[in-house]
Amino acid sequence: MAQLTLRLDDDLARHLKAKAAEEGRSVNALVVSGLRALVDPDFAGDEADRLRERLRQAGLLYEPPPLNRPRQDPELLAQARAAAGKGTLLSDIVSQDRGD
Fold it and tell me: Measured between alpha carbons, how far is 83 from 17 in angstroms, rounded to an integer?
C-alpha cells in the first residue's frame, strides 16, 4: 500500500479533523474516500455522490471523456472471431526464418 505525505494549511487540517470526528472515522479514511470519489466514477454511495457533485460544481472533478468507438458490425465481428487462432503460428514463422 502506498503512503502519501501532504502539506496542508492549518485551517484545512483542523476542518478535516473536525469532519472526521463528526463522522466517527479517521482523517485518513475521510481523505481516502474523498480522493477515491475524485478519480473513481464507480465508487458508489450517497456520500460519494454528494462529494462528487461538490467537486463537479467546484470544477475539480475529473470526468474522463466517453469512448467514441465505432459500432461493430455483428457479422464482421463473428467472421473475425471464427478466423481467430487459425493460420500459421508466429513461433513457426520465426523458426522458419531461422532455418530451424
Answer: 60
Report the percent of the chain where pLDDT is more than 70.
94
Can you read off the three cell numbers belonging to residue 62?
475529473
Annotated domain spans of the chain: 10-57
d(CA 58, CA 6): 21
Q: Are 48 and 33 in contact (CB under 8 A)?
A: yes
Q: 66: which DSSP letter?
A: P
Tell me if the pTM is above 0.85. no
CA distance 3 to 49: 25
